[in-house]
User: What shape does this take?
Amino acid sequence: MGKSTNFSGQPILNQLIMFLDKGKIRKIAMHHGSDRYVKKFSTYNHLVVMLFVAFEGYHSIREVVLGLLANANKLSHLGLSYIVRRSTFSEANQRRSSEVFGEIYMDVYHRNASSLADSRLSDADMKRLYIMDSTTITLFKDILKGVGRNPKEGKKKGGIKAHTIIKADENVPYLIRYSEAVRHDHTFLKEIHHLPKDSIITFDKGYVDYAQYEQFTRNSIWYVTRLKDNAIYEARQEYDIPDDADSGVLKDEEVVLYYGEKKKDEHKARRIAYWDSENSRLFEFITNNFELTAEKIALIYKRRWQIELLFKQLKQNFPLKYFLGDNENAIEIQIWAAMLANLLLTIVRSKIKHKWAFSNMVSVIRQQLMNYINIFSFLEDPEGCWLAIIQDNRKQYQNSLFHEMEGAYF
Assistant: This one.
């Protein structure tokens, strides 16, 4: 059994957290002082427990403690020497800064970025494309101010908004910022000051901020978005549409957008009118890039749907409906844990040849989370691996007088 490649000396969860750098986690904890005055429940232990919560999908601290107790004989593999008390866990979620978990996420992301890139994406323009959007997570309590008017009956629910950027050749968040749901999206644009020169970013028209668009132009960052219906602009020059252009391109022109208190500030942009025959819909795009073809601008905006699929993947596989704390910090920690769990499985998925639907892989991992199965062998050939495990078990009992144990074991 020890020589079998189908078994592992560690539970699957431990094989996943091996992608974490304990040394880096200690440095992050030291920088934030998150382990100051802590006797047992360190930042690393807290992180492991939160990943356990994310993978198992627990809804309360009581469930978490019972789940840990059920696997008490395996916790030493995870670096846990004791079962955390509910009060200690609750206090840690409230006291330990969520920024610590955010930095740990980014460390894991940057160390594994090379394996996350989609090698099938050959378009050079798409490789420098970033996609930005936000998703709102509804809260049962008005901890963070939600969107919309107050209801006539009952209480208004709170909400937290996750502003996210991904790279087009990846499928995990590259940058995440949290805010109360009522905060307008365009304020997040000011966070985008670190993108490489000559990169492209696309977002919907909820992020309209012409002053920031002008800053993008000065920094040689190219944006693609849609023109708002109430935008004030003046057409300056119309460009000829090439004969071999997509038939959907109706107009390509240079415009000047006016903004500011008295609409005296100007931003030069390019306006493209595009008819989407597939959806029978007219789109008006604006961009500060005058080099790319009109068809490429339309294609870039179409790729924005990729981030919507990521949000759907996160909410389906790591549904954030029940939180372990009723404060903003605890909520953000739990969201970071879900993001990190999604990242770890995406890394594993990138290292195997077998094509898994993400939801199916999450389901399998969740069922076998604390079992001693080699995650890579199992995911590469689940049926063959399982038959090999059964065969290993038969060999173990072939000289036994109690053959009925063979069937009872599996």
